[in-house]
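Quarterly update from the structural biology core.
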Amino acid sequence: NSPIQALPPFQLASRNDYVFGKQVRGQLTETGLRHPITRLVDDPAANQALWRNFPPLRRLNVTGAAGEGQVLVASQDEGAPLLAVRRFGEGRVLSVLTDDFWRWNFGMVGAEKSNHLYLQLMLQIMRWLSGDPSSSQVRILPDAETAERGMRVIRVDVRDDAYRAAANAQVSVLLRDPYGNVQRVPAVFQPETGEFEVRFSPGGGGTYRVEAQARLGVQMIGHAIRAVNVGGLREAEMADVAPRWERLAELSKKTGGVFFSYGASSTQDARPLMEEIVKSMKGKVPPQIVEIRDVRLWSIPWVGIWLILFPAIEWTLRRLWGLA
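Predicted structure, tokenized:
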């Protein structure tokens, strides 16, 4: 029994739980594939492939998963937790159930591989523990979409502690328009997108402040605030994003550049284009650094003279004028 027994995201074993001298390889769980700590890249298959690069560990504390915790990485053979997390009230708890964690850093360096995956993992751990917005379970998507009859749609992504779409969450949304008017707007879960949809009729174009709060029962999932653009120049810009080739050619000509046209087809042979680019660069010498000169300020004589002369003149004038 311990005052902190309820905190860890695992259950202590009643037997001797320390294993050493055996190679233990970590494997992502289903939750680990989605969680911002262990999601090193967005593609799940590529993420699993990256985790296979981590070297095996040799020491492990064998425990069971707690009902309110989430296991992100488990041992490949026994399924025992290696990396587990949970939220406790307003706090966050992370447990590393091995004292061999350093092998994921130095082991990769020793195998002549980069340790950037370990460093990225450490960075994402710190971000999650500190409640960084990048790991928030409530996210408001940046732009309001146009709907029927002049309505606008704002989408809110809400995730539970396992970072699954929280369809049963109670989402409260406050909307403030550019004129200071505040209204509470209902949020409805859309199963086809896995997001909550907020529909409203804008009173005019501009920047709207959206504040979303989500709960699962009595548990607060998260809170997010975002400025969302409605109408205006950005919407007009994004309505047609096709390039204007003739304008680009004219701009290139007036600025002394060279304009090359390349078809949209990915099967087009790029060799003629590359030859044309190389041909256009002939005779043009790229800029080079010819000399680097480091000049110390105090090595310039007249600078030193003035630095001495100014205080001397000031002192002399103050004495002549009878000033202290």
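The helical segments are 30-34, 44-51, 103-110, 116-129, 232-239, 245-254, 271-281, 301-320.
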